[in-house]
Design brief:
Elements lengths: L2 H22 L16 E8 L9 E10 L2 E8 L4 H24 L6 H15 L1 H17 L11
Antiparallel strand pairs: 1-2, 2-3
């Protein structure tokens, strides 16, 4: 992959992230910034030489995250598999957005009553499969850790 192809791929991904973020009203500071330009997330395209038998050497798009001075990769995908990378990014963005909403609206009840449906709806707006996947995750959580406000799970 040439440097020009890498730049075009990153520009395309950035445009898609901005488009998707606008669909759910994501604050600009929750979305990607250029590498190390003050954002918590950024993308890079890097050649990865893997030592595992089943993995392929080659170029990968990497979603990076920085918090509290530590940096880690959240997703590493081949350029043709960027939907997973987008899900990983927006799962985190919608979590924080829904968490803020729950802080404002949950008064006296388990915050997850507001947070879970809000996150599922935002993800569903971006991709119906993403919303359903998160709804399954939330159902699992509630089976193992029910609401703590004395009201039964209504899922």
């Amino acid at each position: 992959m040439t440097p020009d192809q890498q730049s075009k791929l990153l520009a395309t991904l950035h445009s898609e992230i901005c488009r998707m973020g606008a669909l759910i009203g994501a604050p600009a500071d929750e979305l990607l910034f250029d590498e190390r330009a003050g954002g918590r997330y950024w993308l890079s395209v890097e050649y990865v030489d893997l030592a595992y038998e089943d993995d392929e050497n080659g170029y990968y798009v990497i979603l990076w995250y920085e918090a509290d001075g530590a940096t880690c990769s959240l997703a590493e995908v081949k350029p043709e598999q960027t939907e997973y990378l987008l899900y990983e990014l927006f799962e985190g963005v919608t979590f924080r957005m829904a968490q803020r909403r729950a802080t404002e609206e949950a008064r006296g009840q388990d915050a997850r009553r507001v947070q879970f449906p809000a996150q599922e709806e935002m993800l569903r707006t971006l991709n119906p499969e993403w919303g359903e996947r998160k709804a399954r995750d939330h159902s699992y959580i509630l089976r193992h850790s029910p609401f703590r406000d004395g009201t039964a799970v209504s899922r």
